[in-house]
Hints:
single chain, 417 residues
Amino acid sequence: MEQKPVLIVGGGLAGLCCARELSRQQVPVVVIESEAEIGGRVRTDLVDGFRLDHGFQVLQTAYPEATAQLNYPALQLRPFAPGALIRTQGRFVEMSDPWRRPDKLLSTLFNGVGTFADRLRLAKLRWNVCRKTDAEIRKTPDLSTRRFLLETCGFSPDLVERFFRPWFSGVFLEKELATSSHYFQFLFRIFATGNASLPAEGMAAIPQQLAAALPAGSIRTGTKVTSVSPHAIQLEGGESLEARAVVLAVAGPEAARLSQGSITSPAACSTTCFYFAAAKAPMSQPLLVLNGDETGPINNLSVVSNVAPSYAPENMALISVSVTGEMTADLQQMESAVRQQLNSWFGSAVTTWKLLRTYRIPFALPAQPPGSLAAPEKSFRTANGLFHCGDFTASASIHGAMLSGRLAAQQVIASTR
Ligand SMILES: Cc1cc2nc3c(=O)[nH]c(=O)nc-3n(C[C@H](O)[C@H](O)[C@H](O)COP(=O)(O)OP(=O)(O)OC[C@H]3O[C@@H](n4cnc5c(N)ncnc54)[C@H](O)[C@@H]3O)c2cc1C
């Protein structure tokens, strides 16, 4: 008799990794995705020959789950240089990782951001996070990242404000550094031991690679799920499908809606990303630029084509500019404030930059306050018998989404054997 498939609602990284693990164990699966394309928050548009990711984002090569599940050489990863360029008090200063860029040691030591003692504290933090396991980190108090940096590590407020705040508010997509210090320490280790990188064909190459490993016919796109129960789903248009088990692999708010409240949606962290085309790149380094001043809307900027030339047509530059939060601000006013700030950084050439597209993403990441990170042994089953996965069930990242998908699949197999 033909086995009913496991139905996975959502074709983002979590849903695809869940499907992959189930397929590996010979369990039939169908992924049902409401959009025309898979990938969820990791997608890329082709616009006038430019590759525009849906909001600036990068793959960290040290993510354990990505390392285990992805074929990195096939993604043709293009790395950012370790470190960042900080725009502060009218100039750009480089903050490099001296372990990986010893040639930048002197310029980093004397760049005027933070104190000399901060450099020693940075070395100590790096040593600590690289030495400790996640389980050891979890035994320490979970504070906000800001409190951890100021009180536990003893960094100067200057270093926190001009370096950690712009860097990590662009990662957490919240400006207060209110995110869990356990998660911060995990990420600091990931940043210290791998590269931030972009696949040559855009971030969408990641879900595409995962989907390519699934049996033909196991993904159904352009199909919205309207309601679910533990062994059936209802589609928009009235069709219903029976399942061996149902896995919700949608973002937090939709998971709360479809599970009728048995899953609680986390608060949202938001971002807006402006992509500009320029005839000439405003800088030559493949470095992330951080706004180290508290003025202006910009959080970070990247000349994406310096990192991955395939993101732009020949002799053109692609620049991404990200603004954290600010979902209620008028978009045109935001663009003009962004341009004004860019003008003060790079001069009047900015007036020739063409805005290609703006991505405004209200639910970019789930908030992760102290205490919110899931224990590794957590259950991916809700009280009413549904399974679920997604970044908000593990950690707000590519790593978390992929890991949650695989772990949820293992629990489905264990409970339906
Ligand atoms: C701008 C931005 C920058 C980021 N930067 C980074 C970064 O640099 N590094 C990093 O590690 N992470 C980053 N992230 C986070 C990372 O992209 C996400 O954590 C991850 O992609 C979440 O995957 P997911 O599968 O959990 O959810 P999603 O990708 O949200 O997938 C859910 C899927 O479910 C589908 N769906 C929803 N409702 C229904 C329905 N009713 N029926 C059928 N399908 C449905 C959706 O269309 C979607 O495809 C960033 C995210 C954003 C938005």
